[in-house]
Amino acid sequence: MTTAPVQGVRRETKREDSILASRAPTEWSPADSASLYGLDEWGQGYFAVGADGNLLVQPDKDGGRRIDLHKVIQGLDERGITTPIIVRFKDMVAHRLREIRAAFDAAMADNAYTGGYSCIYPIKVNQQRHVCEEIRDIGGPLGFGLEAGSKPELLAVLGLTENMPDMPIVCNGFKDDEYVEMAILAHKLGRTITPVVERYRELELLIKHAKAYGVRPRIGMRCKPSARGAGRWESSGGMRSKFGLQVSGMIDAMELLRQNGMLDCLKMLHFHVGSQICDIRQFKNAVSELANMYTEMARLGAGMDTIDIGGGLGVDYDGSQSAWASSVNYTLREYAADVVYRIKAACESAGVAHPRIFSESGRAMVAYSSVLVVDVLGRNRYSSDPDMPKVRSLIAAEPDGAPQPILDLIDAYEGAAKRDPVELHHDAAQAYDEALSLFTLGYLSLPMRAAAERLFWATGRQVLARAQGQAGGDDLHEDLQVLPEFLSDIYFCNFSVFQSLPDSWAIDQIFPICPIHRLNEKPTRRATIADMSCDSDGKVDRFACVDHRDFKPVIEVHDLLEGQTYYLGFFLVGAYQEVLGDLHNLFGDTHVVHVSLDDEGGWEIDEIVEGDTVREVLSYVEFDHEDLERSVRRDTERAVKKGTMSVGDARSLMRFYEGGLEGYTYLE
């Protein structure tokens, strides 16, 4: 076994250890849980803990208007809707949109900015129809709009905006002839639509179709700024970014428009320096560069009136409020103030009118509004009791007695209270490694290997408990940092990481995780989380660490109680997770439930969208359920004929098979 510290795993911090160590189970309070799990930091006022230990959702940050998430899940279970479930809060979407509007309104008022502002929702962030319709209905009165990044998305957006001629539509992404023609026809339909030129060829297509249909369209142009964002997606900006024109290409494009008498149709400059920008300083530089490009284009005769700063407004997933990849070191108001001020400064310096500002802040609009709730199916744990009478009986049964590594492990375990924890760990790890080597060479029996494992893990638990007690909650010694993860439980949960948390698997995105009940009890276990898939990557072993720009390898959880279902919530999953999920192991979409506040201070279920059935998922990969049923039925008849199965058995099997095809892909 490897005993060196695991790279990238932070030391256990004073925060978690001191909270756990300083409270007896009877003294534990909901406030302790809120502090331990960082609800106030990453929750941004949307989540709290009730006096009964249940997690409360505050969709409009009003402590008097709360939704008990655990009661929602219980109510759904009574209706036959079982976990895993995504619970989506419409009122939270509305609150986020109003907060964004208010932040830019305040920034424009403070800076006497006259150009106006619209937040544009890129539907790729979450393309579920209910989400898009909510944003359309809530955002319409706020002056917000929608963005399409592909031809299918454009078709969806056109259908969503029936009889809404003033709603801004931005068309991004790779465009072929049909996509461009559709955008031009949408202009004739009366939509306020701006196709963005990403490549020179797209401009040629725009000019061709504009002339063919007699349209003078609004045209946007995407530039490649030299400035880049900060964080995991910073490579999507800069001079080597996938989309956009370099400055020389922009000049050529403007000349082509001039030659065709359409330079006044060039209305918008667009850029994108990366999603989830964690450091505001990088974004400030990029906005300044964009604003100066805008003023130069206006000076050269383009009919500019809009500047689109793209996406990037981040979400503080880990609550650390830092320039860490899973966090942000700025507030929404700071972001808005910096954008408005820098654009205003550049325009006034150049004598150019203030443009309307677009931001494509999809992640910030919807991330908070969805919570994935899963049930824990079971656990694996390493025993802290080596059962010494059994170990000694096993030794007595050995023909040649106990090998020296086993004796050394017994000595380490029984003398743990008198020895330095670090020294004890070194000796136990050495003895365990020697025992494994003997077994590999054929000199150690299987019972002795089992004894070695139990002794090693039990000694490790004593080492960890004593080291944390001696340090008073301070960081562990470097050589002991592996122990919290190695000695943690594995909690098996009823969901698929690949379907519901693809960013956790693909890019190590950290999502806040917290029990949704029993938060008035002290969590006594540390665990990693495993899903139902048969893939070893189907796990979560990176958890939010509020007071560090890092992660912790385990999460504090409660012991499982016989006959009681234990629920965990995965928070801030409203952006990208549903649309990026795949069918690994043929686990399909989960149930989605839309919950909102009612007029009487309670809550109500607006919509239940049931998850995929097994039959539906099989059809996605070209299986015909009727063919499958016929095949199994033929096999049962053969078994009946052979006498290996009774007619009643065959009937039961077919009933279960047909019912299974119509059932949830997860455990019910």
Task: Describe the protein.
The chain is built from 24 helices and 23 strands. It starts with 13 loop residues before the first helix and ends in a 7-residue tail after the last helix. The longest helix has 26 residues, at 446-471. Helix 15 packs parallel to helix 17, helix 16 (421-440) runs antiparallel to helix 17 and helix 23 packs antiparallel against helix 24. Strand 22 and strand 23 (603-609) form a beta hairpin. The protein is globular. Strands 4, 13, 14, 15, 16, 17, 20, 21, 22 and 23 form a 10-stranded mixed beta sheet that branches. It has an 8-stranded parallel β-barrel with strand order 5-6-7-8-9-10-11-12, surrounded by 7 helices. A 3-stranded antiparallel beta sheet has the order 1-2-3. The model is unreliable at 1-19 (pLDDT under 50). It has 4 domains: 14-89 and 370-381 and 487-609, Lyase, Ornithine Decarboxylase, Chain A, domain 1, CATH 2.40.37; 113-360, Alpha-Beta Barrel (TIM Barrel), CATH 3.20.20; 388-484, Methane Monooxygenase Hydroxylase, Chain G, domain 1, CATH 1.20.58.930; 621-661. With 668 residues, the protein is an alpha/beta fold.
